[in-house]
Batch of 2 targets.
Target 1
Amino acid sequence: MTERARKISASIIFMLGFTQFYSFLSAAYGYFASEEGYDFIWNYWVIGLFMLLLVGAGFLLLKVIRLESQRLLSSLVL
């Protein structure tokens, strides 16, 4: 993958990660702001985990990775 394509894909992955972060925060806000029975179901935890994986993979692609073997690790995370 060329340097430019790697940076573009890392930026897109970061963008998706922050979108998931917003979804997770809105679910958490709904849980704590609700006065009636609002369940924080397992789907919201999956959204939070997916957010962490996307942001981590984007960071690995953008800043850390210089070797091809380490790029494989971030591809496996995705």
Target 2
Amino acid sequence: MNANGVGTVDFNGNGFNPAAMAAGLAVGSAVGQNIVGTMHRMMDGGNQLNEMTPPPVPILMYYVVVDGKAMGPYNIVVLKQMISSGTLTSESLVWTSGMSQWVSAKNVGSLTELFENDVPPIPQKN
């Protein structure tokens, strides 16, 4: 101990630099906190990209007139099955939310492509 009652540290004659030691501790602490934060986000499975996932696209549902009665609502997959079975044709009346009245399926923009591959009926043999 020296005259003031404080110990001295001698590193090969270079002395002890408390400012350098404090700076090293601060940098080490910042790096450690960064690593912990990254690991925490990984463990939660969340990151900024997941937080910005857009909401799901709403599924349009349609009502269809079958044998004079309103049936449904049906999604596009069911409407395709109805076209395949002949229950729904391009002349069938349909309605969905936002429409003011029933219209032929061929006049509904989101349904017209369903009828583009509509195979014509097979001609009858005479």
